[in-house]
Amino acid sequence: QVQLVESGGGLAQAGGSLRLSCAASGRTFSCYKMGWFRQPPGKEREFVSSIRRSGDSTAYAVSVKGRFTISRDNAKNAVNLQMNSLKPEDTAVYYCACGRGDLKYDYWGQGTQVTVSS
Virtual CA dihedral for 52, 40, 87, 61, nearest 10 degrees? Predict the structure, then answer.
């Protein structure tokens, strides 16, 4: 099992920045990839970004590319999401996830709220 705990959410103004962190515990060596997802109010959960264990392969949703940066600290069993140039449409609950393979995510955190005001 892998436990994931997100932190760093909160309120930001448009154009501002927030940094989300995800602390992993348990069988973290099984997390081949880590990802961030978000669920805006009234909408379905959507992919934001992912990173492989090696850190040399990242992916971003088109809507956040160039503004968000994902990073991974394997020594600390953590993955971070630096969010810059925030927009009101970035408002969502952000979730951290761990995938043991490439096809799906197996473990999820409880989420952290990000609210961006205009």
Answer: 30
